[in-house]
Write a structure and sequence with these properties.
By secondary structure, this protein is of the alpha+beta class. The protein folds into two domains: 2-142 and 251-283, no CATH class; 147-244, no CATH class. It has eight helices and 14 strands. The strands form three sheets. Strands 1, 2, 3, 4, 7, 8, 9 and 14 form an eight-stranded antiparallel β-sheet that branches. The chain has a four-stranded antiparallel β-sheet with strand order 11-10-12-13, covered by helices on one side. Strand 2 (43-44) and strand 3 (50-59) form a beta hairpin. The radius of gyration is 21 Å and the shape is globular. InterPro entries: DUF4747.
Length: 284
C-alpha cells in the first residue's frame, strides 16, 4: 500500500513584509502559483541529478494545482530475457523517477506521494527549493500531523520529560502564535527569525503535565500546521519513548500503488484529505 502525505505551506521569507503592508499576501500566492504552473527552472543535486516540475495543471475554479515532480538522472533499466535466460540492461540518459502532487493554494496545503528517490521530508525540501527557483518566494512546509493519533500517543507516556518545538510564523494576520505557543509573530519579526525552536524540559519525578493547557495548545498548533514537535519521555514500562509529530503520526491517506503516480487520483485523495484536515481544525 502506498500513501499520500500532507503538509501546510507557510510563507517565511516575505511574511514580515506582508504583516507590515509592504507586500500583499494574495499577490504572493498568485506569483507562487504562476511559478509552479509555468516555471521551467530545475534544481540539481551533488550527483548531477535534476529535480523538475512537469505536467502541472491549474484548476482555477477549484484553486488547486496538480502535477508531477521528477528526478532525472542517467541510469539503466533492467529487464529479463527469458529466451536466453539473462538480464538486459538498457542505458537511459534521462532515466526518470517521479511522484504526483496536489496543491490547494486556497488553504495552503499540499498532498503528495513518495518514491525511492523522494521520501516524505525530502519531497518537501525539494518542492520548497523549486518554488524559490520558479517564483522567487521563500516558503517552508510543515508536515501535517494526525492530531488524534498524536494525542493518543502522548497519553501513553508515563513520564513526559521534554518537548522540542520548531515554530514558523503564521500566514494568518490574526496571529495565533501568542495563544498557541506563547510567542508573537511580532517578536519573531523583531529578532528577524524565520523559525523559532522552543524546549519544555522537566527533571521532576512527575515530568511535564501532559494534560495541561499549554501542552494542549502545543498539540493544537502542530495540528494547524504552525510547527513540528518531538515528545520525549518514558512509557508505562519505564522504557524510553519518543514521538515525532512528522514521522510517528503523520496525517496520510492510502492509495493503491498502481495509482500513486496518477495526478488525477492524487488530486482526488488530496481533496478528501484537505477536507478532513479542515474538519480537524474546526473541532480544535
Amino acid at each position: 500500500m502506498a500513501y499520500v502525505y500532507f503538509a501546510k505551506m507557510n510563507i517565511n521569507r516575505e511574511i514580515y513584509d506582508v504583516y507590515n503592508g509592504k507586500k500583499n499576501f494574495d499577490k504572493l500566492i498568485n506569483q507562487l502559483v504562476e511559478g509552479v504552473w509555468h516555471g521551467s527552472a530545475s534544481i540539481f543535486d551533488e550527483k548531477g541529478g535534476e529535480y523538475k516540475l512537469f505536467g502541472v495543471d491549474n484548476i482555477l475554479d477549484e484553486n488547486y494545482l496538480m502535477g508531477h515532480l521528477g528526478y532525472i538522472k542517467e541510469g539503466f533499466h533492467s529487464s529479463f530475457d527469458r529466451e536466453n535466460n539473462k538480464a538486459i540492461d538498457v542505458f537511459d540518459k534521462d532515466k526518470l523517477d517521479y511522484v504526483a502532487f496536489y496543491f490547494n493554494y486556497q488553504y495552503e496545503i499540499i498532498a503528495y506521494t513518495t518514491s525511492s528517490k523522494m521520501r516524505q521530508k525530502n519531497f518537501l525540501d525539494i518542492f520548497q527549493k523549486l518554488i524559490i527557483a520558479n517564483s522567487d518566494i521563500g516558503v517552508e512546509f510543515i508536515p501535517q500531523t494526525n492530531s488524534t493519533n498524536l494525542r493518543r500517543e502522548i497519553a501513553t507516556f508515563k513520564r513526559l520529560k521534554r518537548i522540542d518545538l520548531k515554530i514558523v510564523p503564521s500566514n494568518d494576520d490574526k496571529d495565533p502564535m501568542q495563544d498557541l505557543f506563547g510567542i508573537t509573530s511580532t517578536t519573531m519579526e523583531e529578532i528577524n527569525a524565520n523559525r523559532i525552536e522552543q524546549n519544555y524540559v522537566s527533571t521532576q519525578k512527575e515530568g511535564l503535565d501532559k494534560n495541561s493547557e499549554p501542552v494542549k495548545k502545543v498539540i493544537q498548533g502542530i495540528a494547524e500546521g504552525y510547527g513540528e514537535g518531538k515528545f520525549i519521555g518514558e512509557d508505562t514500562s519505564g522504557d524510553p519513548k519518543e514521538i515525532d509529530s512528522s514521522k510517528t503520526v503523520p496525517f496520510r491517506q492510502t492509495v493503491a500503488p498502481y495509482n500513486s503516480k496518477d495526478k488525477q487520483t492524487i488530486a482526488s485523495k488530496g481533496k478528501a484529505g484537505v477536507y478532513k484536515i479542515l474538519e480537524f481544525r474546526r473541532r480544535e
